Amino acid sequence: MNVSDDPLLQVRGLTAGYGGAPALHAVDLKVDRGQVVALLGANGAGRTTLLRAVSGLLRPSAGEVLLAGRPLQRLSAAQVVGAGVAHVPEGRRVFARLSVQDNLLMGAYTTSAGAVATRLSEVLALLPVLAERSRQAAGTLSGGEQQLLALGRALMSRPQVLLLDEPTTGLAPQAVEQVLALVAALAGAGTAVLLVEQDLGLALAAASHGYVLETGRVVAHGPSAQLAADPSVAGAYLGG
Fold first, then answer.
1. Which terminus of the chain has fewer Cβ atoms in its 10 Å neighbourhood, N or C?
2. DSSP 164-175
3. Coil, strand or helix: which one is 189?
């Protein structure tokens, strides 16, 4: 789909870290409506830190995070969700003893009571495998189903921007296809997606644009095809 010239999500000069030590240094990036953008880089490059800073889990020390021009960087994580940004962290993190439906409802904590039933119906229609298992304990699902559940839980807030941290790690090939098909469908419906993916080929295939992080700095960015043809990108991704 065509994306707007005005980015939905914009990060400007973002610096953040842990214990006073910056892990990100003046990072700039943007994600348009309906666009999948990949964050590329080796482990420790700052990809997860960037997602945490955007979603409000980590307070940046400098810079801005803008959603349709609205500053988010001083909001709490719950307020960021309410503004329209949902974060699916690495490792799925479902509530194993709760049912599939109750896990989904946990994602609706910023939603008005009157809208929860509608949101639940929308997510279950989008992910029929979860509808079939709505009363089943989440811990009994396969790895791929748990990842779809984690995505569904994030979608309960009806986000404008979805942050995904390594959503295909440890999944069987068929489950990987399901997850990436869902990502493509969400982007096709207008959701902006910022994707961290361990597999460089998958990341560039799923995204239209990418940013390469190295030691917390953006060292390259551009269309996925351009990055895929650049041998220095593979070097940065492998940490060498």
1. C
2. EESTTTT--HHH
3. coil
Strand partners, 185: none
Instruction: Identify the CA nearest to 237 among candidates 208, 205, 201, 206.
Output: 201
And the tokens for 196?
């961290």
Distance set, CA 149 to CA 43, 92, 126, 195 (Å): 25, 8, 11, 17
* Per-residue pLDDT tens over the stretch 126-144: 999 999 999 999 999 999 9
| DSSP-derived 3-state class of residue 151 | helix
Closest by alpha carbon to 167, among 188, 144, 186?
144
Q: Both tokens of residue 35?
A: 């666009």
- Tokens found for residue 100: 């599939």
For residue 51, which amino acid is it? Answer: L
Task: State both tokens at 211.
Answer: 């940013």
Structure-block tokens of residue 195: 């994707």
Q: What letter does residue 42 receive in the DSSP assignment?
A: -
Strands (E), 141-216: 161-165, 192-196, 209-214
Whether the pLDDT of residue 5 is over 70: the answer is no
- Nearest Cα to 68, choosing from 190, 224, 215? 190
Amino acid sitting at position 69: G
Task: Please report, as a single letter, which amino acid is at residue 172.
Answer: A
Residue-wise pLDDT tens digits, 49-62: 999 999 999 999 99
- Long-range contacts, 70-77 (Cβ 8 Å, 24+): 73/14
Q: Among candidates 112, 135, 114, 134, which has minimal Cα distance to 123?
A: 134
